[in-house]
Amino acid sequence: MSHVLAAVAWPYANGPRHIGHVSGFGVPSDVFSRYMRMAGHDVLMVSGTDEHGTPIQVQADKEGVSPRELADRYNRVIVEDLHGLGLSYDLFTRTTTGNHYAVVQQLFETLHRNGYIVPKVTMGAISPSTGRTLPDRYIEGTCPICGYEHARGDQCDNCGNQLDPIDLVNPRSKINGETPQFVETEHFFLDLPAFAQALGKWLDGREGWRPNVLRFSKNLLDDLQPRAITRDLEWGVPIPLDGWRDRSDKRIYVWFDAVIGYLSASIEWARRSGDPEAWRRWWSADGEGKNARGYYFMGKDNIVFHSVIWPALLLGYDGEGDRGGEPGNLGLLNLPTEVVSSEFLTMEGKKFSSSRQVVIYVRDFLARYDADALRYFIAVAGPESQDTDFTWAEFLRRNNDELVAGWGNLVNRSISMAAKNFGAIPPIDPAGLTEADEALLAAARTGFTTVGQLIERHRQKQAIGEAMRVVAEANKYLSEQAPWKLKAESDKPRMGTILHVALQVVSDANTLLTPFLPHSAQRVHELLGGTGVHAPMPSIEQVEDLDGGPGYPVLTGDYTVGAKWESVPVEAGRALATPKPVFRKLDPSIVDEELARLGD
Ligand SMILES: [Zn+2]
């Protein structure tokens, strides 16, 4: 057993999340965490909503509410969506907690003490018409690096480079089109070049990363510049230095605080668990977390924050950049083991866009379809290693031809036949097993090794392909053995054997599919006469802020229960539940209905 941190990207709380978001960070991290727990590892899966920054401030201004009220609203929406998908977070919290503020400030102070955070007079953008600071994301212009015409003030989505608004060629306000004015302002900068060597050494030692992610990350090291980590903004974590602490117009920049969320959420989880030091088992590089592994899940637009900036913050905290230094009070902290980045999901050939209605929100999806239908699509056809298009026609085909006609049919016909002819799981005939029986049982057993290894290496598409291959072989076996023809009394022992073998493989395939399809896995477990929890589910709990702030909902759960990653022999004589379909067949008319809902 080992300690495994599943650090999942923090969804930004300025609106509901769409299925493109959850296909990048949500479902893959849950499949991984569920499998690792079933295989006996001690997993800590943490995340929360990312709630600071200018876009939330701007959106709140527009709606005439406070940023906190806006964040409260979308925090709740996102918590409910992730709950609906069955994502098994040990803690899904938020960045507006007292605990998070304290941890962020502790990292800031230590990085500052170690010399990695330096003050600098810089040029900040303001709106000439209002005199207010113009948020980076609301400044658009041509990227000075790749020439992309719609680069944002903080980042170019085309080449992935981080930018400052003043770098943009032909900058303009996205709010009213005016040209921003640049004025002098003092800010703190993270001295990223002081980490170039340490980051290079760390990246050179990485193994097993998706090649495009590693290549992209190494390229980022070629041009490391000091990065502003404070902003002219009232909404965010206060700067914990004398002379700055009480200023209401300067805050720590949102990306600096959000990446620290992985650590602060782990600490919050430990504080809530009754053992406030428990987080160290996943984090302490020189203590009990020495052998722990940390996997970070995100979409490719966030690679830079996880393969450069977060490791740089950790190196600075540990005192391991060019300027040396002493670790802070939390002790030496672990860097990521792997940055697991997905590519983008598009929608009917177009980029997701809330403003153009090219979008399907998680909530709307779950109102009309089952969570496992979406989880299946993401696993089998999601953007794991290349950009991928979601189309309703393909969703319908995958659901009806594979989930319903493949897996659902195997479950349904084997359980129905056994229930009808035996009322229970039939025994194996003393005459024994045939070669075909043995071959199928062996294929299912082998799946535990192949599927497990593929999930552990983040090859989930191949992994579910292997699991579905077991399903296909079992369907083929049933067609060839045709137990329905063995109605004569003398043939019944052989019919029982075939169905026993089929039910064993249903049970095994169900375990292999549990990380991907936890909701239906629980139902199949019950159809097979099983009781208790097979696939544990998260729950939403309203909690008090540990440091006196307002309460909030979190996602959490007890995942120590449930199936293990192993073949469990089905027991002859165990009563079978009344069979009912596990998956819903969808009417082809949904394709036109859904397309009519899309804009453009
Ligand atoms: Zn660019």
UniProtKB/TrEMBL annotation:
Keywords per UniProt: Aminoacyl-tRNA synthetase, ATP-binding, Cytoplasm, Ligase, Metal-binding, Nucleotide-binding, Protein biosynthesis, Zinc
Compartments where located: Cytoplasm
EC number annotated for this UniProt entry: 6.1.1.10
Molecular-function GO term, any one: methionine-tRNA ligase activity
Chain positions recorded as Zn(2+) binding sites: C143, C146, C156, C159
Location of the Methionyl-tRNA synthetase anticodon-binding domain: 433-549
Functional summary from the UniProt entry: Is required not only for elongation of protein synthesis but also for the initiation of all mRNA translation through initiator tRNA(fMet) aminoacylation.
Protein name: Methionine--tRNA ligase
Source species: Plantactinospora alkalitolerans
